[in-house]
## 1
Amino acid sequence: MNIRSAGLSPKSDRKLQQSDVDWSDLIFVMDDEQPKRVRSLYRGNDIPNILVLHIDDIYEYRDPELVELLLDRINEGIESEFKL
């Protein structure tokens, strides 16, 4: 499995690009508004399924609690999406 990280915020170190969307089999986002933003930015393109992790933007970079939440919810999403 290969994973890329990219953001939607102008402040993101690495912003989501068309090449990321084309490359992806599945996109994870943090909150309910972000799927709309991805679809709006890349409308007219084939967009893979987008799963919402439901994680509030209250954590600092690399916060241990955030890392744990990400690992748990991403693993659950992958298992569910790919029937593992």
## 2
Amino acid sequence: MASNPDGKPSYIDLLLAFLWLGLTAFGGVAMFAHVRKYIVDKKGWLDSNTFDSGLALCQVIPGAIIMQLSAYIGLKLKGIKGAVVCFIGFGLPAFLIMFILSILYKHSKNISGLN
């Protein structure tokens, strides 16, 4: 996807990027490096100092650091709407996976022969 003339990604770019990151980034602290490599090194959407400042800020706020970092990145790139897009994009894959697994679990407990 093409970026806007100002070099910032579009909302669709952000959504797709964070859907991908949400699907592939898991494993505790390793997520930060994965997101950093993609956002700073590959896409060049943020510089290292801005990313590091956001990570430091997110570490002092209670809650899921990676979700907050996703919103911070969106906020820096596209404002409040960007923060919402990135937050939803990053969290949606995990939500959908857990939702589907929950449905499968509910249906599997009715299969005869399983305890």
## 3
Amino acid sequence: MWEVLIPVVIVVALIVIAGIYLWATYNSLVQLNVRVDEAWSDITVQLKRRADLLPNLIEAVKGYAAHEKAVFENVTRARAETLNSAGPAAAGVAEGHMQQALRSLFAVAEAYPQLQASQNFLQLQQSIVDTEDKIQASRRFYNGGVRELNTKIKVFPNNLFARNLGFHEREFFEVIDGAAISEPPRVQF
């Protein structure tokens, strides 16, 4: 009797251990997936905040440098691209264009001392700087979550069943044009 019962107990114990492992792994993958979604939401909030500040900044600079039409068009185009980007890859491309456009806009502003002394411009400038910092912090948080999720999906034995449970690797939010962010927009006058 015991000779038959021992293998059955061992098989049941292995099934229970495998079930607990699958349950715990599934729940941790769900948590990581939600964390990545939340982090992406934080990024989109900050990108929208910056996009909402840009029309005011453009108007402030335009009052002093109305002839810089191409710069304003580039910022407006980059703003639209940022707002319309779907997913990290498109947002990375848009972010590179936005950084180049902001760099050009602030370069134009440097040529106008009256603008640099304007309280409205200084407040907008500080808001842009704060938002850029928040975007970078959100980007680091998002990429850290993506790294954890992707690692959990790729490690053995999770790689045998994670994709079958509906979990897929996520894209990092990377600026495609690394030179665009190698030096942040100069906003200190």
## 4
Amino acid sequence: MPDSPAQIAVFDVDGVLADVRHRLHFVERKPKNWEGFFAAMDEDGPLSAGITMASDLAQSGCSIVYLTGRNESYRALTTQWLARNGLPTGRLVMRPDHDRRPARLFKPQALQRIAQDGSVVTIVDDDLAVVDALRLAGWPVVHATWMTIARLAEQQSLFDAQEVEGRS
């Protein structure tokens, strides 16, 4: 009997595992300070709901993939953050440095490549535009709502970073 395909659980980083609220002020006004926004990512706090979900799925036998809109140039910093915060070992898929497509376009294409390695059983993302695009395409997606953003300006800043500017 052939082995069944690997079960893959896919997690976004910002807003799902990493609390980015402390650095949103860098992109709330124009001109946006992308250098400051990304320089502060190492100070992101952990989001326990997302980390627990990733750990539980890894313990149940799922392969973990981290799919982030962060640019490739932040790979080392992101890998260190994941390890420092106790995330399970997994593949890290990042946006190419020159790619400024909205996350709702970048992520479905990246998922097609990820799915070549097994069966994607869940995708966890906080960006509603990404969640809607993935659901429309038939992907099993969970909308992460545990990083509560109280101020409308912060919500809009994160949405702009992910969907308008293609930066996170």
